[in-house]
Design a protein that fits this description.
It is built from four helices and five strands. The radius of gyration is 17 Å and the shape is globular. By secondary structure, the chain is an alpha+beta fold. The protein has helices at 3-6, 12-17, 65-79, 127-138, and strands spanning 25-28, 32-36, 46-50, 86-89, 105-109. The chain has a five-stranded antiparallel β-sheet with strand order 1-2-3-5-4, with helices on one face. It binds guanosine-5'-monophosphate and zinc ion. Guanosine-5'-monophosphate binds next to strand 2.
Length: 140
Amino acid sequence: MGAAAGGQNACIFCRIIDRSAASTIVYEDAENLAFLDLFPVTRGHLLIVPKLHVDRLVDLPESAYEGLFKAIATVCRRVEGLSTHYNVSMNQGELAGQIVFHLHVHVIPRYGEGTPQWSRPRERLREEDAAQLSALLRAS
Ligand code: 5GP
Ligand code: ZN
């Protein structure tokens, strides 16, 4: 389903997918596209998106998982020509920094610039919190 079929005319990534918006495309298969981020955190920062418009990972049909993961790995192999150090990440929801609500995977090459992420001081996981979280997250 493309931009028109999905009625996602306002979605910038759907517009990149159907070529009505410009981007620098670096990978494409039948279901996925990868293009350079317009405001790169580092040189070579790129985004991999399923062509199907879904807001976030939990909305993606399982039938798309394998293809998307293969696309990510293929693009990562190419990124290793720039640097063998890189972050592969997804922001899910506004509070996590998601700005574009079309599922996308960031690949951000690292070249030794500062602390790449998780720069806040971290406390060790507390036993009681681990038990609570385990009860919450393990069960389906
Ligand atoms: P988010 O914060 O939603 O995880 O990431 C969205 C990313 O999309 C940002 O890194 C931002 O720079 C990038 N971006 C936003 N608009 C455009 C655009 O029009 N073209 C491209 N190539 N990237 C975009
Ligand atoms: Zn979209």
